[in-house]
Design a protein that fits this description.
Layout: H1 5-12, E1 18-19, H2 20-27, H3 31-43, E2 47-54, E3 60-66, E4 72-78, E5 82-88, E6 94-101, H4 108-125, E7 133-140, E8 144-145, E9 150-151, H5 165-173, E10 177-181, H6 182-194, E11 201-206, E12 210-216, E13 219-220, H7 251-255, H8 257-266, H9 274-282, H10 286-310, E14 314-318, H11 326-339, H12 342-345, E15 349-352, H13 359-372, H14 375-383
Helix pairs in contact: 1-3, 1-14, 2-3, 6-13, 8-9, 9-10, 10-11
The structure holds zinc ion (ZN).
């Protein structure tokens, strides 16, 4: 193991400083080999000499630590009407951020132009330039082919279908660009924040629509064609509502924020979208509270089957409708604990998002860091 600079760096990524002797012992490599690898990593600033430590022989020896400021990461979470940008270090700590209104239906070039313009401002704000950037991660509110970085028939993004986000942005920032859908990057963000207990995590986003990001064995599971986690179109038994996809009784058409807003409009209330529903819940409107709790139960019904099948350790509930507080999550818990198998629910934690509005940028940054610090990528960087 560790027979390359990149592999040695992956040992140091846990943040703990280690001496040459400790690394020799850990890797089983010759001292001269370890020294060579460390020199290569020092040259690229991937590591820095840390504080001197006293070794067992009594002589001070230098320890080496991962350098989270070796490069910086650009992270963008673009929603349908709103965008959140952040610059982070390689540990994912946010150095600068900006959130603003951005209508995704303007099409790709105006939106991505806005993104670059604001990243330029943020870079200046934290005293960095494009040369420090090791990659850009972007989340989009629709289906994305992660390999090619192109949206695939995104229903809410006119003009974006097949547009190569990676090529357009990559040619302008001269760094790798990684693109995924918003739910996947949020799942990655929550996984990063949750720590070692969350190797099997589901992130359910309940906004206008409903989607789910899947972390299996500490890795994002995208499925064969990137369509994994589309729980919004799983049928809810006993419902006859027609969904926009043409099927009957889809979870999204029954329990999504758009569906709830429409139902409340039918009762004469002024609710355009999920946020208006949340506003009513917060104002104590009993009709809205009842609907949100029922929506939680329907989501719970779908998730209960998934819990039996997948056995997650954590289910995180986010998205606009989750801002309605405990009402949504109470419905989810009620059904999952009632219906899933005891072994699967014994240590299952069902909780609200820990990162809230920052889940997306945190995950977009994590996606880039994992790509850039993969041993092969580090090896290539030190050969330059
Ligand atoms: Zn559907």
């Amino acid at each position: 193991m560790a027979d390359s600079p990149g592999a040695l760096l992956s040992i140091l990524r846990d943040g703990q400083a280690r001496t040459r002797a400790e690394l020799v012992q850990l890797t089983g490599l010759a001292r001269s080999t370890v020294s060579q690898r460390l020199d290569a990593l020092l040259l690229q600033r991937w590591i820095v000499p840390a504080e001197d430590t006293i070794s067992s022989g009594g002589r001070p020896s230098t320890a080496f630590a991962f350098n989270p400021l070796a490069r910086i990461v650009l992270a963008a979470d673009l929603g349908v009407t709103h965008a959140h940008l952040a610059i982070t270090d390689l540990h994912g700590a946010i150095l600068a951020e900006h959130a603003g209104d951005l209508a995704i239906d303007q099409g790709p070039e105006p939106c991505l132009g806005w993104l670059l313009e604001n990243f330029t401002k943020l870079l200046a704000e934290c005293g960095h330039g494009l040369a420090d950037v090791c990659g850009l991660g972007v989340g989009l509110p629709g289906p994305v082919d992660h390999q090619s970085g192109r949206p695939v028939n995104p229903p809410l993004m006119p003009g974006w279908d097949g547009f190569s986000v990676t090529t357009w942005l990559g040619s302008r920032i001269s760094a790798p660009v990684l693109v995924d859908n918003d739910v996947n990057i949020m799942a990655l963000g929550e996984h990063t924040a949750a720590g070692p207990q969350a190797g099997h995590l589901l992130f359910a986003k309940v906004g206008t629509g409903i989607g789910c990001g899947i972390i299996a064995d500490d890795r994002l599971h995208r499925g064969a064609r990137g369509a994994a986690g589309d729980i919004g179109h799983i049928g809810v038994p006993g419902s006859d509502v027609v969904c926009r996809c043409g099927n009957i009784g889809c979870l999204e058409a029954v329990a999504g924020g758009g569906a709830l807003a429409a139902r409340l409009r039918g009762e004469g209330l002024q609710t355009a979208d999920a946020r208006d529903v949340v506003r009513l819940v917060r104002a104590g409107d009993t009709r809205a509270i009842r609907l949100v709790r029922q929506s939680g139960r329907e989501l719970g019904l779908v998730l209960a089957s998934i819990v039996n099948f997948f056995n997650p350790s954590q289910i995180v509930i986010g998205g606009d409708l989750a801002d309605a507080g405990e009402h949504l999550i109470a419905g989810v818990r009620e059904v999952i604990y009632g219906r899933s198998l005891p072994l699967a629910t014994q240590r299952l934690d069902i909780r609200p998002s820990a990162l809230g509005a920052r889940a997306g940028v945190t995950g977009a940054a994590a996606m880039v860091v994992d790509h850039v610090l993969a041993p092969d990528a580090v090896d290539q960087s030190v050969q330059r």
